[in-house]
Amino acid sequence: MLRSPANGHLARLFRYGLVGASGTALHYAILVSLVELGGVDPVVATTVGAFFGALLNYHLNYHWTFSSRRPHREALSRFLLVAGSGLALNTALMALLVDGLHWPYLPAQLGVTALVFFWTYLANALWSFRH
Questions:
Q1: pTM score
Q2: Based on the structure, what is the number of domains in the chain?
Q3: Residues with Cβ < 8 Å from 57, sequence gap 6 or more?
């Protein structure tokens, strides 16, 4: 069976999704733990969770999703800029939805996560890990 470029992109998007799911699971575990057990503000808790989820995502995306050959000093700095923009987007949207519009924090986070996922995939595929 011939492998088309579209299939390669879909496979990479699927791997990115699996990696993102692991980072998101860590993110949400920290978010819920800090809010429910520690009484931490949801906006602060989601920021902390997103940071640790991003660290896990870098390692897995570099080696597995993109099989990057870019030196770590370049890939990591680019990834951190993308992750930072994703973190800022996540935090701003959570502040708007939770603090501004008084949405429950978990449904808000689900929608925000989807938007941040597509933004960071495109930025990482086209810039951070691109050969």
A1: 0.71
A2: 1
A3: 19, 20, 22, 23, 83
